Amino acid sequence: MDERVVQARVGIVIISAIILTAILIVLFSDFPSMFRSGQIIHVRFANAPGVAKGTPVRKSGILVGRVSNVEFIKNSPDVRVTLSLRKGTQIYENEICEINNSSLLGNSFVEFIPSSTPVQTLIPNGAEIHGHSNRNPLEMLGSLEDDLQKTLGSVSSAGEQFDKLGKQLNKMVSDQDEAQFHRIITKSEQTLESIHTTMSKLSHILGDDAMQEKIKNGLSEIPEIMEQTHHTLTNIQRAVQHADRNLENLEGLTGPLGEHGADIVNRLDSGLGKFDDVMNQLALFSDRINSQDGTIGQLLNNPELYNNLNRAALNIERVTTEMQPIMGDIRIFSDKIARNPSQLGLAGAIHPRRDQSKYPNFEISEQPPMTWRDDLRPPANWRTAPLEPTPIQPY
Length: 395
Description:
This protein is an alpha/beta fold. Among the domains are: about 1-35; about 40-140, no CATH class; about 305-375, no CATH class. Helices cover about 60% and strands about 10% of the residues. The chain has 12 helices and 8 strands. The chain has helices at about 5-25, 30-35, 135-145, 145-175, 180-205, 210-220, 220-260, 260-290, 295-300, 305-340, 345-350, 370-375; strands spanning about 40-45, 55-60, 60-70, 80-85, 95-100, 110-115, 130, 130-135. Strand 2 and strand 3 form a beta hairpin. The longest helix is centred in the middle third of the chain and has 38 residues, at about 220-260.
C-alpha cells in the first residue's frame, strides 16, 4: 500500500478523534450554557452534601439543568446553590426542591418534586427559594451505629439470660424427684389431649354445611357492614365539621366579648347597682303604701276618710246638677243680648223692644216660665241630710 494513503487515513482518524473529543467536552462541560440562555434559580439549603458545580438538576426524573455555582451565604450557616435550567423549563412555587442520592456511593443530584395541589404561579428568573436536603445513606448507616451496638448488646444479654434459664432447668430436672417430672409430663399430655379434643369439636362445628353457609353469609355481609361503617364515619366526620364550624362561630361571638369583657362587666355591675336602687325604692314605696299613716294607707284602711271622699263626690255631683239651670239662664241671657244688644242700656230695660229688623235670622223665643227654678231647687235640709254609707270592698 502506498505510504501517502496510509498517512492520509491516519490523519483522518486523528482528526475525527479530535472532533469527537471536542464534541464530548462541549456536551459534558459548562460550554453548552454559553450557547443557550436558560433560567437561573437560587436555592438555599441548610447543607448540600455531594453537590458541586455541574451536579445534575432533575424534575420528575428528567434532566432539566445543572448546578452552576455553590457558595456560602454571608453571615449565615446556609449554602446557596445556583441552578442553571434549560430554556423552557417551568418550575412552580409549590414544587419542593430536594437534594437526593442516586446510590450508596453518594452521587447527589438536585430534584424538583411536583406537589399534589395544582398551582399555576411560576418561579421568576433569579428568584431565591428554600430547599430540603436528604441525608446520605452512608451517613444514615453511620448514625445507626449506636443503635446497632445497643441492639447487639440487647441480643447478647438475652442470650446470657437464656443460658442461665437452661442451666436452671437442667438443675431442676436433675435435683427434683423423677416422679414429679413424670407428673409434669403427664399433665402436659393431658393438656395436649384437651387441645386436640377442642380442635376436633371445632373442626366438627366448622365441617357442618349449615355452619359453613352461615359463615359464608357472614363473610359476604362484611363489605356491606364496612360500607355502613364508612357511611357512619362520614356522618360523624360531617357532624364534627359542623361542630367545628359552630365552635368557630362561637369563638367569633366570644372573641369580642373577651376583648370588651371588662367594660361589659363594669356596665353589668353598674346596671345591677341601679336595679338594686330601684328595688329598694320600690320596697320603700310599697312599705309607705302599706303603712296606715300615709295618704294611700288612710284611704285604704280608714272608712271615715273614704266616706268623706264619697260625700264630697256626691256634693260635686249635686252642685253640677244645680248648675244646669243657671247655665240655662246664662244661655238664654246671652241669646237675648245677641239678638238685641240695646237691652244692656237703661232705655232698653225701660222700653223693651222686639225689633227683629237688625237680626232677621234670629227667632224671638218666648220667655221661660218663672216656676222652673222651684222645680230644680234642692230641699232646704240638703246640707244636714245624712248620706247613706257606701260599703267598702275588702282588698
